[in-house]
Design goal:
The structure is a single chain. The protein has 398 residues and is an alpha/beta fold. 31% of the residues lie in helices and 21% in strands. The chain has 11 helices and 15 strands. The strands form 2 sheets. Strands 14-13-12-11-7-10-9-8-15 form a 9-stranded mixed sheet, with helices on one face. Helix 1 packs across helix 10. The radius of gyration is 20 Å and the shape is globular. Bound molecules: nicotinamide-adenine-dinucleotide. The site of nicotinamide-adenine-dinucleotide has 25 residues, from helix 7. The site of nicotinamide-adenine-dinucleotide (NAD) has 25 residues, from helix 7.
Length: 398
């Protein structure tokens, strides 16, 4: 039975998913609310949606079946719990939350209500992650023992504009959001392929030196002055992975912002901005084309009006040959995609899970495994790299 969705937050990212939810045959109506009502109105008009609702609170009082959170990154935890407790299924943009307690509250609320919760981690469907998942399944790696995931996105490549749009006059207070509290694009790409979880972490951060008042502890709502950070995680079953969360880096993040490497006893995979290689003892195979996302939209498409120009590359990439589109609804065939082809799969995962009553791939338990290690890593970085245990909520029940 098609169900209705209320989008919360009509900023830069919501547009792509509003369109996909509207197109999906498993969804009936799509409503929108934003603290800035004109943004909600613009999105409704642009995508031909059902209408606006005046607030999140009012939305929870309607008979809408699900909410999709596209609010600022530090806000998701409490909103998700309130929505679940009000009887709504929840789709949440990343990250799941910003503290252990918030993650635990979501897991508890999902357990008690039996409702669907899904975190829309784009790296879960990153072509490199999809490829590594396949090679793990066919045994190509032998025993996987080490991986690396980077989310390398320089502040000068779109983030200043994005934070201004997001934070208004006081944007500097939140542009300092700690890199390790946005850990899911790097961790989710590693653990989206390697079915394990982090058990401990040691992390180091680099205090910012730009001096423009952004990563400034006095100004920062998060008391944060770290703009680059590196974390080394121990994983269950043996082995480790390393992530980089860089916000001051001379690197073309508009070409590829999330990149991965996986090392096993029989094979390995390595990726840079423009190339991807499979390797074993006999040699190197260039798999770059297999993992290359084709554009799904022109960068000047009117639907990208809310997106800062420097961020648009990420919002226009379609699927790669490695993606199997067979399960996607035909209504998505010519729909805009984004983040290396992941948007279509995420939207479909959520709609299918709600309609079937099945557990989505990035459910609350998996979302916690993609998010919580970064929260603990940030603590470790603040303690000079002290190795800290990473709590785990286990596998999703059932
Ligand atoms: N690759 C990815 O997965 C990816 C990419 C981009 C953004 N994101 C995530 O998407 C989310 C949204 O990002 P964005 O760039 O669109 O942010 P944004 O700041 O442009 O938009 C957020 C909107 O939410 C609204 N809002 C905040 N609290 C609200 C509330 N309680 N009720 C109603 N509206 C509320 C704001 O007014 C704003 O318009 C963020 O969490 C970000 O981390 C993920």
């Amino acid at each position: 039975m098609p169900f209705s969705i209320g989008i919360v937050g009509a900023g830069q990212f919501a547009g792509s998913f509003a369109k996909l939810f509207r197109l999906h045959p498993g969804v009936s109506d799509v409503h929108v609310t934003d603290l800035l009502p004109e943004r909600a109105e613009r999105l409704v008009a642009a995508e031909g949606l059902a209408g606006t609702v005046s607030s999140f609170e009012e939305l929870l009082g309607t008979d809408v079946d699900a909410v999709a959170l596209f609010t600022q990154r530090w806000t998701h935890g409490p909103l998700a719990v309130r929505a679940l407790r009000a009887g709504k299924h929840v789709y949440s943009a990343v990250p799941m939350a910003v503290s252990y307690e918030e993650c635990a509250d979501i897991v508890e609320a999902v357990k008690e209500t039996g409702l669907t919760y899904m975190m829309g981690e784009t790296s879960h469907y990153n072509p490199a992650t999809v490829y590594a998942r396949e090679r793990i399944a066919d045994g190509g790696f032998g025993r996987l023992f080490y991986a690396e995931g980077d989310y390398v996105h320089d502040m000068d490549l779109g983030f200043y504009d994005a934070y201004r749009y997001s934070g208004g006059e006081r944007w500097k207070e939140t542009a300092s959001y700690p890199p390790l509290l946005y850990p899911t694009h790097s961790i989710g790409g590693v653990l989206g392929a390697w079915r394990t979880h982090a058990t401990s972490v040691s992390a180091l951060g680099v205090p910012d030196e730009r001096g423009d008042g952004v990563f400034d502890r006095e100004t920062s709502r998060f008391g944060n002055d770290l703009s680059n950070a590196t974390a080394l995680f121990e994983v269950a079953g043996g082995g480790s992975f390393r992530t980089n969360e860089f916000r001051r880096v001379g690197y073309p993040s508009h070409i590829r912002e999330s990149r991965f490497r996986f090392f096993g006893t029989e094979g390995s995979f390595e990726q840079l901005a423009t190339v991807s290689f499979w390797q074993d003892r006999s040699g190197v195979r260039d798999v770059s084309e297999h993992l290359k996302a084709a554009p799904s939209l022109a960068a000047d498409d009117p639907s990208l009006a809310e997106v800062s120009p420097a961020l648009r590359d990420a919002f226009v990439s379609g699927t790669a040959p490695v993606h199997d589109r067979a399960r996607l609804p035909r209504e998505f065939a010519h729909a805009p995609n984004g983040h290396e082809g992941s948007h279509h799969f995420l939207a479909d995962d959520f709609v299918t899970a709600v309609n079937d009553g099945s557990t989505p791939t990035v459910n609350a338990w998996v979302a916690a495994r993609y998010t919580l290690p970064g929260i603990v890593a940030h603590d470790s970085a603040l303690r000079g790299g002290e190795r800290l245990p990473v709590p785990d909520f286990g596998d999703a029940p059932g």
